[in-house]
Amino acid sequence: MNQAYSVSELRQYIQHWKDHQQSIAFIPTMGNLHQGHLSLIEKGQSLCDRSICSIFVNPMQFGPNEDFNHYPRTLDKDIELLESVACDLVYMPTASELYPQGLEKISQVIVTDLTETFEGAHRPGHFTGVATIVAKLFNIVKPDISVFGKKDYQQYCVIKKMAQDLNLDVEIIGQETTREPSGLATSTRNQYLNEEQKLEAALIYRTLQDASDKIIGGEKNFALIEKQATDRLSQAGFDTDYFNVCNADTLKPATPGDKKLVVLVTTRLGDTRLLDNIEIDLW
Fold this sequence. Notes:
Layout: E1 2-4, H1 7-19, E2 24-29, H2 35-47, E3 50-55, H3 75-84, E4 89-91, H4 95-98, H5 119-122, H6 126-141, E5 145-149, H7 153-165, E6 171-175, H8 195-201, H9 203-216, H10 222-235, E7 239-247, E8 260-269, E9 272-281
Helix pairs in contact: 6-7, 9-10
């Protein structure tokens, strides 16, 4: 697997591939990779000739109460995992290269409409940091496609809207969430759970499935579904930030006439904040 640390180095590989009419799939990550990330790379490989994964812990998307310095860095293991799925290249830039004048002076990409609620409300500035770094990476890599996991459904929607709004020449692909056998969504944060908590956390997806079953069965009282789900999680020891039935495209509160829905949940078990969702198609 090729490794690049600078923009100029990376672009030499990309230019060579493009000279040979090879398409490129790009998967941006912050490292600490797991099976979910590998599924994104494998999806990209199924659609393109070449695959590039970036590893960069982006300081711009961390809030003042989120510890950037303690985000797990597991570079050696990450490289082994990327090699195991035959990723063509890993790009590992430094903050000084991507933010040469520091975060205070960097131009920002602000995606409107989708970023004020849910994670945007609980983590102010987070999506500006995400959109800015992803836009920069898209301009550096110039991929044909980029694959994002749907576990972070709001992020997926934000990146898709950014690409559309700015006429970026990249197709955004959503990849379905990978799960543990219990149903728990695969996540970097799962490493903070003990074995007992991992079993308890499987209740999140079961609660989403129950909500989906009720909606597919014809229940239109979404507020009732949300309350029942939140109460169920609370009784099991979770502290829920939100559990909401939304229009899958706008992330606005769902109406009885909506046909494409997504149920979003973020809840805490102990000190660990866990995200998940379930899509519902009523067509």
